[in-house]
Design goal:
The protein is α/β, with parallel strands linked by helices. The protein has helices at about 5-25, 30-35, 50-55, 80-90, 105-110, 120, 125-130, 135-140, 145-160, 165-170, 205-220; strands spanning about 40-45, 65-70, 95-100, 180-185, 190-195. It has eleven helices and five strands. It has a five-stranded mixed sheet. It starts with a helix and ends with a helix. The model has no long low-confidence stretch (mean pLDDT about 95). The structure holds cobalt (II) ion (CO). The site of cobalt (II) ion has 7 residues, from helix 5.
């Protein structure tokens, strides 16, 4: 059964939004109709509190978006790889951003050993990061461990991204393209740079190592 009231609210809000956009910029929709040229590809979490465009103040047309639980980059994920290829090769975006967020439910679930059903297959790779850095994470106070793993997860995804054939090929033809890892705080609405940006093949690894050390030290209170 369709929740008519819920849907009515959406249609009402949509009409209002479209009117506001035209009031602000009469050519807005006709311009977007003929061209899509975003400079950013955003790979973020599906969490409803982390909408890509809104938190960085961008309008429709400015950011190409892929979201999934835990902001993961799987080279075997046809959805994510198709978005990446289209963004890099057709739209020619200049920046690919992996945006995580503190308190991520996917990361929390990966931190626990209990079973959650189908999602366990999806977050398996976050568990792998947790296990690989278990000793270091043990030095982080319990209450900060999920947030530390949220950061480690973003760093890992940026590394995976820079290892994809799509990015390696773009960099070997000297395409102007950078990857970045950032994290969003639900508490204050601010994003923080994890300093893993890379703009060429081979740039990524040293930055990732430093960023991992910085994350672990910061959360361990050192
Ligand atoms: Co999340």
């Amino acid at each position: 059964m369709i929740d008519a009231k819920g849907m009515e609210l959406l249609f009402h809000r949509n009409r209002q939004w479209a009117e506001d956009m035209v009031a602000r910029d009469p050519a807005f929709f006709s311009r977007l109709l003929h061209q899509q040229s975003p400079r950013w590809l955003w790979i973020g979490c599906s969490d409803s509190r982390v909408p890509a465009n809104q938190i960085v103040g961008l309008d429709p047309g400015e950011v190409f978006v892929h979201r999934n639980v835990g902001n993961l980059v799987h080279p075997g994920d046809l959805n994510c790889m198709s978005v990446l290829q289209y963004a890099v090769e057709v739209l020619q975006v200049e920046h690919v951003i992996v945006c995580g967020h503190y308190g991520c439910g996917g990361v929390k679930a990966a931190m626990e050993d209990s079973a959650h059903g189908l999602i366990d297959y999806w977050i398996w790779s976050i568990r792998e990061i947790r296990d690989r850095h278990q000793t270091d994470l043990d030095h982080v106070p319990q209450e900060r461990r999920v947030d530390a793993l949220c950061e480690m997860n973003v760093i890992e995804q940026v590394e995976r991204l820079s290892e994809t054939k799509i990015l390696k090929e773009a960099w070997s033809r000297r395409q102007d393209l950078q990857v970045h890892g950032i994290i969003y705080s639900l508490a204050d609405g601010l994003i923080r740079d994890l300093e893993v940006s890379a703009g060429a093949r081979g740039d990524a690894a040293p930055a990732m190592r430093l960023a991992r050390e910085a994350t672990l030290a910061r959360h361990a209170g050192q």
